[in-house]
Each structure stands twice: as structure tokens, then as C-alpha cells.
Amino acid sequence: EVLFSFGLLTIFYLKYNLYTGKAGFIFKEEFTGFKGIATLFLILISNFAGVAVWSFIVGFTKYSQTIVSNAQIICEARTGMPSLNLFMSAVGCGIMMNVAARTKEKSILTVLCVVIFLTLGFSHCIADFFYYTVTGFKIAYIRTVLISVFGNLIGGNLLRFWFLDNSENLGKNNHEDN
Fold it and tell me: Which of 15, 23, 41, 18 has the alpha carbon at shortest distance from 160?
């Protein structure tokens, strides 16, 4: 949880693009039309490439055997999940990552979103891709990647559609309005 929180906060503070952070802004801001979809796809592919590089690097650390062993357990759990369960798990993660991305102050709420999605075992397509590549990517993982990508996209947009974009104010101090 600490490592993922550190990574997510670093991505936010450095203003890097993370698919699960940007997917909740589809058809909004810079993600409109064909160009927006293409940009989001490029972010996704770039994230996958970055994760593949990190999984290669991790293979040379003193903890590589432990990491691969733990990642294998996660991979088996993901590939063994029924498609609907995996999709709903990815939707839950998409919701949490959208809240984290929309908060005005990237700190405790961001960390809590990470703790929640990790504790509940939600499927984060980019984090899961790390597990898949560090264990040696298999054809069986393609189904889980596609379902998680789509589920993260849907989950990332649910708040916006449910609350008519009032979720823009998450983390903002609105006590003056009450």
C-alpha cells in the first residue's frame, strides 16, 4: 500500500499521465472525440510499457523471488475470476482512482483510495499488468487485461455520470456554502 501510494502521489505531483487517473475524464477536457480516445489509448500503452520496464528492473532486486511468488498468486486469482466479478472489481478500482485523481489536495484522500482498492482486492489494470509481466506474460492474461481496462474506464466515469459532475469539488473546502 505504501509503495503504490508513493507511486500514485509521485505521478500526480509530477503531472504524469496514468490511465486510471485520466480514464475518468473521457469526453471531457482534452479527452474528447477521436483524438481524445487516441490520447487515452496512447497513455494506456505508455503505462503498460513503463510497467514492463519496472517489472524487468525488479527481476534484478534481492526481493525478486518473493515479488514474483506473490505476483503469481495475484495472477492466478485474477485469471480464475469469473468475467463479471473481474469487471466489477475493475469498476470499483476505477471509482477509487477517479476520486483520487479529482481531489484538489493529493494527500490523505489519495492514500485512502489506494488503501481501499488494495484492501478490497480491486483490479487496477496498470498494477495488474506489473504482476502479469513480472511473472512472464501469458496469453491467459489478455482476457483479464481487457476486462480490467474497460472496467477501470467505466468505474472512472460513474461518479461523473451519477452526480452530474458535482464530483469536481471532491476535497474542496465547501463549508462556506452550507
Answer: 23
pTM: predicted TM-score of the whole model, two decimal places: 0.84
- Mean pLDDT of residues grouped by 10 in the chain (178 residues)? 79 87 78 84 96 93 94 96 98 92 78 91 95 94 97 90 57 38
* 3-class SS of residue 173: coil
What is the spatial distance between Cα 56 and Cα 78, in angstroms, rounded to a whole number?
A: 21
Amino acid present at 177: D
Report the alpha-carbon distance of residue 152 to residue 146 in Å, rounded. Answer: 10
Angstrom distance (rounded) from CA 148 to CA 128: 9
